[in-house]
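Repro:
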Amino acid sequence: MADSESSNNGQDVVHVDFAFRRELAKKVEGNLANFCYQCGACVGDCPAAMYSDEFNPREIMLKVLYGLSGELLGEESVLWLCTNCYNCHERCPQEVKPVEVIISLKNMLADRGIFPPGVDRIIKTFEESGRTVPYNPAIDKRRAKFGLPPLRPVPVEDIQKLLEPEPEKPRRRGRTGNEEGQA
């Protein structure tokens, strides 16, 4: 976790949590957050920021840059307020894709078993049926009313295979006997 402590001249010093940043980089397209220069374009049309004083995608990106995992990955995380609307993605001049970073952070929270009430039911429904909402015949009746075809069957077995954890891959050893990428 990143620490903040006072230095001799009274200024705060931030210690970046690089392990957190590496973990996030594995979940999202590399180090997207590194290209965020804090312009604030992501906040301009963000519905979550409009309706919540707590949610601000620019501040989330800054916390990612500083590696402040403790402020992002806690029980009361503001990340769940994100609507995944992709407005920030469309507005970002650096193509940082803040929503992708936020979704990856939500996945990190879920990996730790931290999610809002009710999400566990949605996860269970998805794992069992391949849908986030339980199917019932009324869905097809409503779809027919709007001229839509009935829902197609979901390949549940294929989805369950995709949800199985990947086995750990052994790291290759370099010429020096150290793990690759280490001195």
